[in-house]
Amino acid sequence: MSRCLLQTLLISYFYHEVIKILGISAFEREAAAAAVMDGQVQAAARESSFSRQSCDPSFPAGAIRFCLQETGWSPAELDAIVFYQKPLPRFDRLLRSILIDAPGGFQHFQQELPQWISERFFLKRSLQQKLRGIWPEGRVVPLAFAHHHLSQAANAFFSSPFEEAAVVVIDGPGEWTTTTIAIGQGNRITPLKEIRFPHGLALLYSAFAHYLSAAGAEHLLAHLAAYGNPESADFHYFYETIQDKLAALRQDGSLRLQLENFNIRNGAVVPDARRWEQLFGIPGRQPGGEWTQTHCDLALAIERQTEESLLHLAREARQLTGLPKLCLSGKLAQHGRLNGRLYEAGLFDEIYLPPTPGEAGGAIGAALSYYHIGRLQPRTVRSAGEVLHHGLLGPSFSNFEIERLLRQQNLRPQYFADFEDLCQETAVRLAKGQLIGWFQGKQEFSEHPLGNRSLLADPRSPEVLQRFHRQWNQDSDRALPTLAVLEEDAARYFTTPLHSPFGLLQAPLLPEYCTPAPDDYATWPLTRKRAFPKGAFPLCTEADGYARVYSVHWERTPHFWRLLRAFREQSDCSMLMNAPFCGPGQPLASRPQDALSSFQQLDLDALVLNNFLISKE
Length: 617
Known about the structure:
The chain is of the alpha/beta class. The chain has three domains: 13-145, ATPase, nucleotide binding domain (Nucleotidyltransferase, domain 5); 162-352, Nucleotidyltransferase, domain 5, CATH 3.30.420; 399-615, Alpha-Beta Complex (DHBP synthase), CATH 3.90.870.20. The strands form five sheets. Strands 15-23-22-16-17-21-18-20-19 form a nine-stranded mixed beta sheet, sandwiched between helices. Strand 2 (32-37) and strand 3 form a beta hairpin. Residues 4-15 have low confidence and may be disordered.
């Protein structure tokens, strides 16, 4: 062995170059930042946690500051900052969209053009200016851009416990791609097939949300669909109309929109309201308008169409890759009912959904794609147990910090030195029907609360149901709360085997926990259906007996697992209602002062902040 080669091997063995990357997503629905070191996510947060603006799309200055503070990095230590999409291809798509929709789209484009020129076309310069506002004396960090769908694919595959897997991304366009089938192997993601704008399943689904005035709250379609009547003439007509007049679905899962029935506005595909009213025989719902049975039947029709399209895509991905494992990401991966349907179909042995499959998760994906693909760094496949911690990446606060805040507020909490005693006291209160705010550890970086920033209650309590609806009936965009269940007890309640570590699955409850519907239920008016009791867990159960499930494992969130276990001892029930800890229209409580503000604003009985308990009694 030569001396030079020996030196090289010794250097490689004893010296490892640490690579630190900051990922950013911004200017869409949710902005976020993520810190990645050597392929491991160290911290991540949404900008809304710091701006206190729900779904804040603006440049994530607060989230970036948090990531640097949490990791202890200085800007000089960063190897790269990676934005989650490429600005020039996206600008190209917007320009070409004008031609598709000419002359209708030109006026909208003129209105948006100044902002696009300053913030998007010259995005690199704009980002550098904003970054200098955070560290004015710091060096210029190399700035890179990842393809939008590659960021989404990397968010799913590189954070999964799989060495290789099929990867499916169903999302908005980003640049041009709206749907991707790829194969992930080691540190590579290879696209195999794609659908390009202005076609795609997520675009069709969002168009229906727009028509029913649920844009940005697509989960409402699934909620309405549960009240739809699959035997009605309206449903069958709507379903056939979607297939014949709006979207041609092929066996390989590809979907082409019939563009004469759509408009393209500011890069988005929206319904042509006049044509849709002619096709469906009903006008689009106005914001704040009443829901009708016809709306529910239309929602059911698009839900069924979307389910079929997703299953076709999944079969195509299985056939193209030949792999029994799937990673799913993108906008539609947030859809619990679709995810549950995919699990029930049994097309794959294992399915992984990242905790944040939407826009915010693109920050993680951008950083991971740059590390593994841009820098050609090898990937260490982590165990499923390690992957489970990916949802807890945000700010945390010590007992000392919380105690200081409580003293400033002249509050006299009860302190529990033994956390088990705190769990027992909280469980007793929950079993008595109290509604409690629960604030522990690191804030979630996920689509749903994971037991660190949660509103908790006994899901069986009719009194809690009434109190909850009184407080949030004005917040029509709010999804039904999740059922948090001890993972080892899930089979007691649900018909299918469950592993839902991030609350991204809906599953059917066992028949004994559902109230059988009368034979004429389908003919009832919607108001009567909505008043019909939904079974043993009415606050969290959809009209058709499904519920969103978060399976709680002792390794992932030990504090929440201990509370659930204590509640089981008190009530013989292994589930709690788990809702986001925030007021109507607000982002999740990030800091103790946010939790205190929500506690004072809402009709809650108690608040737990780490080891402190505050009661309104």
